[in-house]
Amino acid sequence: MGQPGLDFIAPEIQKTSTCSTSADCFSLGLVIGAVFNGDSLIEANHSSSSYLKQMDQLESLLPGLLPKVPVQLQEALIRLLNKDPRARPSSQLLALIKYFSDPAVQALQFLDVISMKDPTQKASFYRGQLMDVIGMIPRKLWFSNIWPALQNEMRTQEVLASVLQPILFLIRESTREELDFILMPTFRFVFSQPKSIQATVTILENLNIILDKSLDESLKDEALPMLFAAFGSATVQVQQAALISTSLISVHLDEASIRRIIMPKTKQIYQACNQENKLTLSVLKCIEAILDKLDRSLVVDEVLPILYDVKLSDPDVVVEVVQIYRRMLLEKRQGLSINLMATRVLPSLLPQTVNPSLSLDQFSILVSTLQEMLDSIDRNQRNKLKLDHLTVIPVVKTNLRHQRSSELISSSQVKIDARKTSSAEDMVKRSDPPVQDNLNFLRVASPQGPYRRLSDNTMISNTLREIGRASCRERV
């Protein structure tokens, strides 16, 4: 028989060869001390004398060890390392210590016997206890211990809704590779199998998590048919979940599916909801999410009639309607014309400016959108009026020159008289020509007379010019 390791055995075993559960508890105390101390408390190196000597000093080591040990374990460790076997706690008492009652450990232990539990116990565990501690369980145990149990329960319709909670947690926290190669090969069959209402609602409301993370494009071919079928459900909860899901996964929907399936069924749900606020709000959010993928005719024929018909009483509904109008205002191709804004939209929204139920933020959104609409109407109408009343005024260019001083500057300012004469002789004979009749002539001083027209310069003969020059010389 080999020599036992002295570093972790109870003193009674070494001294009297007495073995019991109490001796095991002492060994457990030595193990706990080594874990938190970093080294074994006793290092006998297979020497009995060394072991006995260190055992006598063990009690003196505890004050330096206890600060390294969790508070919940300190008292238990002191009792476990007691040399008197009668003072040590039993294994049953150890199990009651709070430190050893770890919820994550208890959840894993429950999973080991989950197959023996009834559906009610299983549903309660998956929805409550497991969800509370799954984040504390080491990641490597998610796929080795938890996922196999969840796979088995997915086939049971009674607990599927509860099982989906931890499954969706694993989907959110897993990598893309873990999702596509570990989780999806089994989970994808859930889309086509019969499900309870609660399970259907849970999957639809979290469908965006699956489609956004998965790299497998074929997954949409299995998930979207379940979404389209949910629009035709007779259950309001499923219909609302379908609307919410559509608003979250709109990027994964093609335009043909939206035009042929989503929009017509959304309209049917709205017409049957009797203006119920919660369902109406889901309809509006769905429309806002798919608005960019609707053509102008579908917006005018299907979307705008819904917006005109919505009862604007609930503040959330009012804001959602305003948000849709704002999206349409920014995107001209979506059919919100100036005439519609002036005749249908503004008359329906303006009364909401005095709605006492609106918060300050909601009121600000409403008023800013109304202002944008009024600015758009103002720009459009001003441009239209300018084009309708535009008149072209001809501009007459004139040049005032010395040779053409009698040209008209403006027909409204210059009086045009018949030209009297152009002879210099007649001008000389006039000793005092009427000032009033010649107000429209430019006058210059001249040897031939007190006044003459500048335009007559070109009509004086050379002889008269010579006479004028001689007269000037004589005066000098």
Secondary-structure blueprint:
Layout: H1 11-16, H2 21-37, H3 48-65, H4 71-80, H5 91-96, H6 103-112, H7 119-133, H8 139-153, H9 157-173, H10 176-187, H11 197-205, H12 207-213, H13 219-231, H14 236-248, H15 255-272, H16 277-290, H17 296-309, H18 315-330, H19 338-349, H20 360-388, H21 424-429, E1 443-446, E2 449-453, H22 462-475
Antiparallel strand pairs: 1-2
Order of helices and strands, N to C? HHHHHHHHHHHHHHHHHHHHHEEH
Q: What does the main sheet amount to? A: 2 strands, antiparallel
Straight-line N-to-C gap:
163 Å
Query: What Rg is obtained from the alpha carbons, in whole angstroms?
Result: 50 Å
Relative helix content: 55-70%
Number of E-state strands:
2
Mean pLDDT: 82
User: How large is the share of residues in beta strands?
Assistant: under 5%
Strand order of the largest sheet: 1-2
Which spans have pLDDT < 50 for at least 5 consecutive residues? Answer: 397-425, 431-461
- Class from secondary-structure proportions: mainly alpha
Structure description:
This protein has 476 residues and is an all-alpha fold. 61% of the residues lie in helices and 2% in strands. It has helices at residues 11-16, 21-37, 48-65, 71-80, 91-96, 103-112, 119-133, 139-153, 157-173, 176-187, 197-205, 207-213, 219-231, 236-248, 255-272, 277-290, 296-309, 315-330, 338-349, 360-388, 424-429, 462-475; strands at residues 443-446, 449-453. The chain has a two-stranded antiparallel sheet. β1 and β2 (449-453) form a beta hairpin. α2 (21-37) crosses α4. It is elongated. Mean pLDDT is 82; it is low at 397-425 and 431-461.
